[in-house]
Amino acid sequence: xxxxxxxxxxxSEADLLNVHEGRxxxxxxxxxxRQAGLLAEFITEHYPPDIIWASTLKRAYETAVITADxxxxxxxxxxxxxxxxNGVLAGxxxxxxxIRYPEPPEGxxxxxxxxxxxxxxxxxxxxxxxxxxxxxxxxxxxxxxxAVVSHGGLISMLILALLGLPNTSTRxxxxxxxxxxxxxxxxxxxxxxxxxxxxxxxxxxxx
Length: 207
Known about the structure:
One of its GO terms (molecular function) is phosphatase activity. The protein is an alpha/beta fold.
């Protein structure tokens, strides 16, 4: 069976500024780099991947580089692993966004785009497409374990796709800083071994 690790980046500067992140390209904080270092040690010891696929956004790419360097594996970047394209909200304070672009009381419909951004359905299609390609690549190259370093929203979409849940599903799969999900896959089954593990982090590093 193929093992698939889905990993979120470490703490970014946006987390300290209380702004909408999404496509805003903030780097890791000092804490985020320390979280990534502990993640790298954990992954290298317990789940060394054959290759890491990573988002091109700084916070995920930096996390992936730290992990790949420690694990001694290849690293491939893909823009489709970027976070939800939140358009005009990217980098905007949550207070300002609540005033200028309030969320509809009933929530935003899956097909509705944020201004200059994408819809949830478009994000789901993006997740399905890159997932299909990376699994096909793993099969062709005989990989036994691959890791994906991405973002909370995109990881949630990847899990929905893995579990075959519908596009209209309201289920969300939360991922903390450097949280790890592990799935085992073959042509018959997709098994979630654990979700959002942060056992590599001490309590004071949990966010």
